[in-house]
Amino acid sequence: MAQLAFEQPEAQGLTAKLARHAADLNFKDLPDDVISIARCCFIDWLGVTLAAHDDPITDMLVTEAKEQGGNRQATVIGNGLQTSVSQAALINGTVSHALDYDDVNLNMIGHPSVITFAAMLGVAERDGCSGEDFITAFVAGTEIGCRIGKQLMGESHYQKGWHMTGTAGTFAATASAGNLMGLDRDTMTTAFGIAASQAAGLKSNFGTMCKPMHAGKACQNGLFAASMAKRGWTSNPEILECVQGFGDTQTGAFTPDLALDGLGERFMTRGMLFKYHAACYGTHAAIEATRELRENHGVTPDDIEAVELHVPSSYFKMCNIQEPKNGLEGKFSLRFTTAMGLLGEDTGRMDSYSKAKCEHPALVAMRDRIQVVANDDLEHDHAVADIWLTRKDGVVIQQGGNVHDPESDQGRQWSRLVEKFQGLADPVIGADKAGQIIEQVAKLETLDKVGPIAELAVK
């Protein structure tokens, strides 16, 4: 039987220790590569948010915000609406996750940038925050999201059906917004308590508009938690470790020792992984394997008799929609995305995921040749796949795919993400504005004010 959170000696003072780290983190504490990763995350986040400017999600949220009204404090990326920091956090956080094209960190089993930048950017606009402060707040949130995510709550929290982008993400947003707003240790601890009562997000809503809403609500709720704590709101200062607290109620494998291991020395921000396919990250390893099959083995669609796609069993609850009916469902379908890869479709294009594509005869025919098989012998859950392809001549070819390891060359990573950003941003705001944003983000830590970047990121 798992030991309860409040019975573990190492859990004593856990909330306060993590909150203290989030409040105290300073720019001078950040290694150069972590600063570089933060810049990469920001340019990528801006790109995927701009790309979803005309998504139905955006229109509905903007319409709602206009009807409610609010002080003109912050910018809705792409749309240009000036609204309250709270509404901007909800809209920008949701929209940035709408295409499922944003970054991932497996230490959290979630998406750190969409639950931090949207919580921070409105505050940066309103308060005139510097680039150094902005980067520091992002890292503070990412570290907390990862440490409360997989490190503290473990796989059981995720496998039970909780979406960590929404749950651990609310704490991440609180840490980011709170750090940027200058919360002290005790106030940040209180903010974590407020965050815990709002943290939610169910994997059963994957493939619907509610999935990206998890990110938007995490941003809005985290910002609320930080703001209300600063005003004197109260909460339980032991919310992570107490009886009936977040750990006690939300996981069967509470591991405070992992959450605190290397705190302040080992940066989990280094685990950021970026998407170059516009679908759930669980599909990427299989897509990469199809590329290897085509390039290294000369496999063509006409050669293929059948395909067995081996993945960890956890994928079955994440991205195994068998017969997707629309583009959003297609992003969570291993069979569909693997079929796209085998047919040489561009999996990085936004219009590759549509109702028409899901119904295309060639894609449906290839999809139906693919069988997804659970294989828990595979390592690195959420980032590997193994394809066993049978050709029509009876020859079987095996090809693995692995997207588990972060890029070690920061220059190469920046170049790839700039190219991705231009492809997403140029059609929306034009090459001139996109170029100005790239220039500003490239020197983010030197900027006196980050807010003007938001003003450039509008059509």
Sketch the topology as an H/E string, one letter per element.
HHHEEHEHHHHHHHEHEHHHHEEEHHH
Largest sheet: 4 strands, mixed
What's the CATH first level of the largest domain?
A: Mainly Alpha
The secondary structure category is alpha+beta
Report the end-to-end length measured between terminal Cα atoms. Answer: 55 Å
- Mind telling me the CATH superfamily name of the largest domain? 2-methylcitrate dehydratase PrpD
Q: Per the principal axes of the C-alpha atoms, what is the gross shape?
A: globular
Strand elements, count = 8
Our count of domains comes out at 2
Number of helices: 19
Radius of gyration: 22 Å
Percent strand:
5-15%
CATH architecture term of the largest domain:
Orthogonal Bundle
The level of helicity is 40-55%
Strand order of the largest sheet: 6-5-7-8
State mean pLDDT (0 to 100 scale): 95
Task: Tell me briefly what this model is.
The protein has helices spanning 14-24, 32-51, 56-68, 85-97, 117-127, 131-159, 167-180, 185-196, 210-231, 246-250, 256-260, 284-297, 327-330, 334-342, 355-359, 361-367, 410-429, 431-442, 451-456, and strands spanning 74-75, 82-83, 104-105, 272-273, 304-311, 370-374, 384-391, 396-402. The protein is globular, with a radius of gyration of 22 Å. With 459 residues, the protein is α+β, with helices and mostly antiparallel strands.
